[in-house]
Amino acid sequence: MTGQKQALVLASFGVSDAAARAASLDAAAALLQQEFPAWQVYQAYTSNFIRKRLVAAGVQAFSLPELLTQLADAGFARVLVQPSHLTPGEEFDHKVCAAADEAAALFPAGLAVGQPVFAEPADYGRVLDAVLPALGLMPGEELVLFGHGSPHRHNPVYERLQQVADDRQLPVHVGVLEPMDTPNLAMVRERLRQRGSRKLLLAPLLLSGGSHVTRDMAGSNPDSWQSQLVAAGFAVRTDMRGLGEHPAFRALYAQKVRQALAAAKW
């Protein structure tokens, strides 16, 4: 149907830090607008906490249900929701898929949801191919990727990424911050010990920087991963950039949108 209004919604957990948001989410939204000019690109945030902080700072921030209602009221006939969430975990299920299901009847030409970054077997290699060249490991360094993890159920994505890295014989070690999930920092340290690793590059397996990176990953406090790894005898270099700050990683979102459009036959 020609002339119908189409919206492409980048749905993310959200980032309160303005610089980190501009370098990751806003840059990803700009890329999607460039790649898909027939669609109007919008952003929605799934974290209530982040939205409240943004609104308090004078930044316009909508939940996905709010934005979908506004788009329907504005006459949009077709919507594609592309999550920026890395994994098909709790936030994706409860905040993206649930909101899309509830709003589907509002759009006469359809509403579809794209895949998270880690959704199919080939995605793990694609992420490694996008991220490793951007990080630039120095000779003798091994990469420790600092992920978030899931608080209430085990998320196997991180172990699958580790397995793909191991199958490729890459010097990559994946861990998660969430204390109830695995692989945790103690498991990462044991891997490093068994390999005889000494020099490390510590980098986020998170879409954007923020407090998890500045405090939990690389903070000066004794509980940060950097502090604990240094205390264990490793030489640690850090890269504070979130995944979304790497152009090759942002391109994965455009690829997911193309897959979703093809699946919906749009």
TrEMBL record:
Binding positions (Co(2+)): 148, 178, 212
Q: Which GO terms describe its biological process?
A: anaerobic cobalamin biosynthetic process
Q: Which residues form the active site?
A: 148 (proton acceptor)
Against InterPro entries, the record matches this protein to: Anaerobic_Co-chelatase
Q: Return the SUPFAM superfamilies for the record.
A: Chelatase (SSF53800)
Q: Name one GO molecular function term.
A: metal ion binding
Q: Does the keyword Secreted apply?
A: no
Query: What are the record keywords, sorted?
Result: Cobalt, Metal-binding
Q: What is this protein called?
A: Sirohydrochlorin cobaltochelatase
Organism from which the protein derives: Selenomonas ruminantium
